[in-house]
Amino acid sequence: xxxxxxxxxxxxxxxxxxxxxxxxxxxxxxxxxxxxxxxxxxxxxxxxxxxxxxxxxxxxxxxxxx
Length: 66
Known about the structure:
This protein is an all-alpha fold. Helix content is about 75%, strand content about 0%.
């Protein structure tokens, strides 16, 4: 995953977005394009983790702007 304390805000969010997109694509990769409940749960977990990282990054930025 990304180091949320380095780089610009845009770069950090872009990196988190890339991680989420890649993770969801990997979780949903199935040659038959038939997604199981497990695939969907994994994809949602990855998205939730990424959202938490974005929230943490924004909180870190807000705390350091003061």
